[in-house]
Amino acid sequence: MSVVIKLKNINKSYKGIKVLNNINLEINSGKIIGIIGANGSGKSVLFKTICGFIAPDTGDVYIRGLKLGDKIDFPEDVGIFINEPGYMSLFTGFMNLKFLADINKKIDINKIRSTMIKVGLDPDNDVKVKDYSLGMKQKLGIAQAIMEEQDILILDEPFNALDYKTYDDIKSIIKSLQDEGKTILLTSHNFNDIDQLCDDIYIINNGELSLATDEIIDKYRYKNRG
């Protein structure tokens, strides 16, 4: 396995408050990595830093050996799903994805259609996104993240507020993406989501990132029983 993401001494502060504190991390290809932490702990900031949306104050981000801000600004082979993504609400899901696909011009409408079907959406559905259920919006966000065949996926709270059926659907989609060789970073408020899906689990606390020990994982499992 090769290292596809490397973070070296990453620091980020807002208004004098340190959000990311000397973070070092290496992620191998084909793994699902879970990040857990309280609200405001820095999970989303970390993900946006990896994607190039936020520049660290100090430290370096490498994607497949290329340093962000040097060789590349925004890594093309990274797909991102953010919690509550913004859409053009008066357009259909298909038209939203087509608009995004037209920016990079990497895929055609057949690929958009097949991706929507893959995540359980009907590309011919004429319902506007403003009338989508939350689960449909989550699936649309995942379709957006994977439709250009990105090898690395950043999924920020993909299970948020879903019903049981949609939850199981999205969990199956994530597992199938790993089977295809994708590398996936995942956050969730629910530890059970992380525990069931991830190969390795990291905790971010007070801006510091550390690999969760078996003892810590057992404590989370006990806390989330029932």
Brief overview:
This protein is an alpha/beta fold.
Number of strands: 10
The total of helices stands at 7
- Level-1 CATH class name of the domain at 1-77 and 152-158 and 183-226: Alpha Beta
Percent of sequence in beta strands: 25-35%
Poorly predicted regions? none
The shape is globular
SS content category:
alpha/beta
Which percent range fits the helix content? 25-40%
- Element-by-element helix/strand order: EEEHEEEHHHEHEHEEH
Q: Mind telling me the C-alpha Rg? A: 18 Å
* CATH fold annotation of the domain at 1-77 and 152-158 and 183-226: Rossmann fold
Please give the alpha-carbon distance between the first and last residues. 37 Å
Biggest sheet descriptor: 6 strands, mixed
Reading side by side through the largest sheet, how are the strands ordered? 6-7-8-3-9-10
CATH hierarchy: architecture of the domain at 1-77 and 152-158 and 183-226: 3-Layer(aba) Sandwich
Q: How much is the average pLDDT?
A: 90
| The CATH superfamily title of the domain at 1-77 and 152-158 and 183-226 | P-loop containing nucleotide triphosphate hydrolases
Describe this structure in words.
The chain has 226 residues and is α/β, with parallel strands linked by helices. The protein has a domain at 1-77 and 152-158 and 183-226: Rossmann fold, CATH 3.40.50. It has helices spanning 43-50, 93-104, 109-118, 134-146, 164-179, 191-197, 214-223, and strands at 3-14, 17-28, 32-36, 58-63, 66-67, 78-81, 152-156, 183-187, 200-205, 208-211. α2 crosses α3 and α3 packs across α4. It is globular and about 45 Å long. The N and C termini lie far apart (37 Å).
